[in-house]
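Hello again, I could really use a second opinion on something today. I owe you a coffee for this, so here goes:
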Amino acid sequence: MQTVRYGARAEQVNREIEAKKADIWSQAVTAVYETDPEIIAAVLPPPLEVGPQPLVRITITRVEMPGIPVFGAGWIGVQARHADRIGEYPILMPMTTEQSTIGGREVNGEPKKLAEVEVIRDGARVEARIARMGATLCEIVGSVREVRENYEMAKTDFWFKISPSPEAPGQLDQDPLLVYGEKTERTRVHEGIEGELIVKEAPLDPIADLVIRRVVDLNWTERASTQVGRIIGPVPRADVAPFIHQRYDDLSVLGAKR
């Protein structure tokens, strides 16, 4: 009998998820800045709360994973707290390929979307940008000015694995799961950048609302990370439903603009 490759398989492998369990080296440009605590509070679904500092992190990365084409990956998130755990809540994780998007999005609940993500380094000069749907969200430009000590640290991301309802638009058909993304990150290159973070108005991705009060750090890293997801438990769907526009584009804002 002819092999039918869309037929049932005894074993299923998600390479994007499996790759996160191994050291994957990437080149990253990161900006960390302070905003207003009330802005952080406004974007956090319960039970997440504002963390000790009103910090926003934007990271723009070029990633190489075995078995997957080189791709761009971004992170735009805020410091948050759940119970006694301090971590970060991502508002947007832009990715350049379908394969790098769907694994973390469907399995972990990461808020990934297809986008343009670019990192360029020419000598000491660094340029990085994220764009979606015809609008540039942010840019980081500058020059490497200092060599820093490498680091290794543990981090936690907070994700919500959600299921939109097919019957009630804008609602969820079950309580979402709060997931901890537990990550270990280490660097082999860590350098300080003298430059500028530029955040632009983008109707579908209004990160410009996360007002920059003070830039805390700009840096370049070559880093590797491993990551596993851990389900903490369900949270009331009524608490998370008002925030699902963070995950799914509200195209009505484009019509309103016209």
